[in-house]
């Protein structure tokens, strides 16, 4: 089972018909990942905790963790089953790999970093879904190592998705169809070159290695899901850019498949 990083961008992805990233996600089962997973683990940028945490629920509620958007967004529902067995397995794998404190949340549903892409990818909402949080006070290596610990899930029919954003400086976004600023394009290009060349250590230390890293990611929560997905694929994984588009000038929707080595 390959792993993936998806740039989920704006919540408008759910309803704005002309977004290229929306068409990409709607074609997911036909063009990208034809094999139906037994369950899905999503590492979402929109769940930040001090310690790695999984949601252990039987039924996922839909969390509307965004404000000021059109009313139709708040009418969408994505009631995918919970994946309590997967959550327990994630906790077991992390603790056995040296992550001493892994917590359970028995009330949390799916935030928009999970349900918005999933409702386009798997609109039937019939696959159990578990979420795993990110730790913004820690670094890329921590999240890469979390992914390494979760690698056995690939052989257990679990689809691992990191959901974040290749670039994410919301205060620097522009109007639609404005040119991509050089600081965003340079980082986006650096990321692609690093991933395609297998330079995982550069990705883990992106703050020092990448151009304009702090400008592109003032906070790291939208980048760390990539580290988890990359780590789960293994050191010999081959990266493939499966979608690329820009919106609002500086928001990259670059998404990657990490094909595991045979």
UniProtKB/TrEMBL annotation:
Would you identify the family this protein belongs to, as annotated? Belongs to the DODA-type extradiol aromatic ring-opening dioxygenase family.
Q: Which domain of life is it from?
A: Eukaryota
Kindly list the GO molecular function terms attached to this UniProt entry: ferrous iron binding; oxidoreductase activity, acting on single donors with incorporation of molecular oxygen, incorporation of two atoms of oxygen; zinc ion binding
Q: State its cofactor.
A: Zn(2+)
| UniProt lineage | Eukaryota, Viridiplantae, Streptophyta, Embryophyta, Tracheophyta
Q: What is this protein called?
A: Extradiol ring-cleavage dioxygenase class III enzyme subunit B domain-containing protein
**Alphabetical UniProt keywords:** Dioxygenase, Metal-binding, Oxidoreductase, Zinc
Q: Which organism is it from?
A: Papaver somniferum (Opium poppy)
Q: Domain Extradiol ring-cleavage dioxygenase class III enzyme subunit B spans what residues? A: 3-258
CDD domains, A to Z: 45_DOPA_Dioxygenase
Question: A Pfam family in this protein?
Answer: LigB
């Amino acid at each position: 089972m390959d792993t993936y990083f998806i740039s989920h961008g704006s919540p408008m992805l759910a309803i704005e018909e002309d977004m290229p990233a929306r068409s990409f996600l709607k074609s997911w089962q036909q063009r990208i990942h034809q094999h139906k997973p037994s369950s899905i683990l999503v590492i979402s940028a929109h769940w930040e905790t001090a310690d790695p945490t999984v949601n252990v629920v039987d039924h996922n509620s839909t969390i509307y963790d965004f404000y000021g958007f059109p009313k139709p967004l708040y009418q969408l529902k994505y009631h995918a089953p919970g994946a309590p067995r997967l959550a327990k397995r994630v906790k077991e794998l992390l603790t056995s790999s040296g992550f001493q404190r892994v917590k359970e949340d028995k009330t949390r549903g799916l935030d928009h970093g999970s349900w918005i892409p999933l409702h386009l990818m798997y609109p039937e909402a019939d696959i159990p879904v578990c979420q795993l949080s990110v730790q913004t006070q820690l670094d890329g290596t921590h999240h890469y190592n979390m992914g390494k610990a979760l690698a056995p899930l690939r052989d257990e029919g679990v689809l691992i998705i990191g959901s974040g954003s290749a670039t994410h400086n919301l205060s620097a976004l522009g109007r639609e169809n404005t040119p991509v600023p050089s600081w965003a394009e340079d980082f986006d290009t650096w990321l692609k070159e690093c991933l395609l060349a297998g330079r995982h250590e550069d990705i883990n230390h992106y703050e020092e290695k990448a151009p304009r890293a702090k400008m592109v990611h003032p906070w790291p929560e939208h980048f760390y899901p990539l580290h988890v997905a990359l780590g789960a694929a293994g050191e010999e994984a081959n990266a493939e850019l499966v979608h690329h588009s820009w919106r609002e000038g500086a928001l990259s929707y670059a998404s990657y498949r990490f094909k595991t080595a045979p």
